């Protein structure tokens, strides 16, 4: 492996450590959450205030772009995909790099059944003729049933590195699937453990290292620390 390939692999690993890159192909309907940069305060007074306090001039918001994937091009770090949608009666297309840091998430909404790798013919079609049938084969069902993570919990995240053998890298991996708090880990079901074990290749670490027991102890410690504060208020 040459130096360029090694650097590309490291950059791809850094992106996939922060978000999931799902398995999708032309014909699938996807929702791409794009980070859009905006100025925090465009007025002269706001800019001067930001300069003095060293406040970032740009803030990011998420913008959803949903449409049909009509092509995938390239490979590795340079891979991209083209998404087409109809906006106010006009066809709009955007090309996204798969491993762009400006993409916060890619969600597969619907899997389409097509026989071509490039769906440029959709550009000349409207209405029913532009519809794509939904896939219902075994592979589509398996992909749809794949573990996509937990529902994001309320409250601030906990420091998961307080659980023995969970380092910063593992904490980053868990955050991709919205594992952010001790009470989540303490309430893991057998299916939750199996899903994480399979997708993160943990080889039974959750049970061997007793993550659930350690998480329960940390939850109990946090609850005990809050009791004196509640008594003081009363």
Describe what this molecule looks like in 3D:
With 234 residues, the chain is of the alpha+beta class. It has two domains: 3-144, SH3 type barrels (Roll), CATH 2.30.30; 160-233. The chain has helices spanning 3-16, 44-53, 138-144, 168-176, 182-186, 190-199, 205-208, 211-233; strands at residues 29-39, 58-73, 80-87, 90-97, 103-110. A five-stranded antiparallel beta sheet has the order 4-3-2-1-5, with no helix packed on it. It is globular.
Indicate the low-confidence ranges by residue numbers.
none
N-to-C order of helices and strands: HEHEEEEHHHHHH
The major sheet is characterized as: 5 strands, antiparallel
How do the strands line up in the largest sheet? 4-3-2-1-5
Number of strands: 5
Number of helices: 8
If classified by CATH, what would the architecture of the largest domain be?
A: Roll
CATH class of the largest domain equals Mainly Beta
Strand content: 15-25%
Mean pLDDT score, rounded? Answer: 86
Terminus-to-terminus distance: 66 Å
Query: What's the CATH topology name of the largest domain?
Result: SH3 type barrels
Radius of gyration: 23 Å
Could you estimate the helical fraction of the residues in percent?
A: 25-40%
**How many domains, as an integer?**
2
Helix and strand content put the structural class at alpha+beta
User: How would you describe the shape?
Assistant: globular
């Amino acid at each position: 492996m040459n130096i360029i390939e090694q650097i590309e692999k490291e950059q791809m690993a850094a992106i996939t450590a922060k978000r999931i890159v799902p398995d999708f192909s032309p014909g699938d309907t996807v929702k791409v959450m794009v980070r859009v940069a905006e100025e925090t305060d465009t007025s002269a007074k706001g800019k001067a205030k930001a300069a003095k306090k060293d406040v970032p001039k740009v803030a990011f918001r998420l913008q959803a772009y949903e449409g049909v994937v009509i092509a995938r091009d390239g490979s590795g770090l340079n891979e991209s995909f083209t998404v087409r949608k109809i906006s106010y009666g006009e066809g709009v297309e955007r090309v996204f790099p798969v491993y762009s840091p400006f993409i916060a998430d890619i969600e597969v909404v619907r899997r389409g059944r097509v026989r071509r790798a490039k769906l440029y013919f959709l550009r000349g079609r409207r209405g029913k003729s532009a519809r794509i049938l939904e896939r219902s084969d075994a592979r589509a069902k398996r992909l749809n049933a794949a573990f996509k993570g937990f529902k994001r919990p309320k409250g601030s995240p906990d420091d998961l590195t307080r659980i023995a053998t969970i380092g910063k890298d593992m904490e980053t991996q868990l955050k991709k699937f919205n594992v952010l708090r001790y009470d989540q880990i303490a309430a893991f079901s057998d299916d939750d453990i199996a899903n994480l074990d399979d997708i993160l290749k943990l080889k039974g670490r959750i049970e061997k290292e007793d993550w659930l027991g350690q998480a329960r102890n940390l939850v109990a410690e946090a609850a005990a620390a809050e009791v004196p504060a509640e008594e003081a208020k009363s």
